[in-house]
Write a structure and sequence with these properties.
The protein has one helix spanning 12-65, and strands at 67-74, 82-93, 102-104, 124-129, 136-142, 146-149, 162-173, 179-183, 188-192, 195-204, 207-215, 228-236. It has 239 residues and is of the alpha+beta class. It has one domain.
Length: 239
């Protein structure tokens, strides 16, 4: 008659070995998960940082291309981190029929009160050719083809007078590591955050060079280091 061998359980040593192997496998898998999560986290931050830096550079480039006259480079926090300039908003020839408090241009179709100031002196008209040349006047409002002023002209512009509409603007790095565009009147817009360095230079009278360095908002969880990104752009003004 065939006899059956009794079933035996795992020995104490076998159980301990199995637990040790399982622990090693679990630890390895957990470390792999943490590494993958950390990598995904910092990659996401890096993508966001680069996108914001490029957008800020594009906005600065658009502004600087419209620079009218000369710019002033100065220092607020780090060397040459502030650019102050006059931005050209529009230009044209007066169509005549002006009064002491108005300037007409029948070729324009401005949005109503496009140049209405949010504070005194936000938009300014300057006569750069013809009768009235050299005069400047802050705009108080506008219709589709007429600019209004609070102060009168000394010399009335006529249909041969060339004018420009300008607004003062400043690009600067502030102590909270934000890149800001500050328009005449003090209105401030944040173009980028976590900006560690901003510098301007002027190689020649018509070119402004911009260098911007940004960082991720938090360090890499594994290396405890920030990721940095630097952009440089040379901009030639149109006017």
């Amino acid at each position: 008659m065939k006899t059956l061998k009794p079933e035996t359980a795992f020995s104490h040593v076998e159980v301990l070995m199995a637990l040790a192997i399982s622990s090693i496998l679990f630890t390895g898998m957990f470390q792999l998960y943490l590494s993958s999560a950390s990598s995904a986290f910092i990659q996401g931050q890096t993508v966001q940082m680069k996108a914001e830096a490029r957008t800020a550079m594009d906005l600065m480039t658009q502004d600087v291309r419209q620079l009218y006259g000369s710019a002033t480079i100065s220092t607020t926090l780090t060397p040459n981190d502030t650019l102050s300039f006059t931005r050209l908003e529009d230009s044209g020839y007066s169509s005549g029929g002006n009064t002491a408090l108005t300037l007409n241009d029948s070729r324009k179709s401005w949005a109503a009160n496009r140049f209405a100031p949010f504070s005194a002196g936000t938009y300014v008209v300057q006569i750069v050719g013809g009768p009235g040349m050299g005069q400047t006047n802050p705009i108080s409002g506008n219709t589709t083809s007429q600019l209004s002023f609070s102060a009168g002209w000394d010399t009335l512009p006529d249909a041969t007078s060339l004018y420009v509409i300008t607004r003062s603007k400043t690009l600067t790095l502030t102590s909270d590591n934000m890149l800001r565009a500050i328009s005449a009147g003090g209105r401030s817009a944040v173009l980028a955050t976590n900006v560690t360095s901003l510098s301007f230079s002027q190689p020649n009278a018509s070119t402004i060079s911009i260098t911007e360095t940004t960082s991720t908002s938090t360090p890499d969880p594994q290396t405890q280091r920030y990721v940095y990104y630097t952009l440089t752009q040379s901009v030639t003004k149109r006017n």
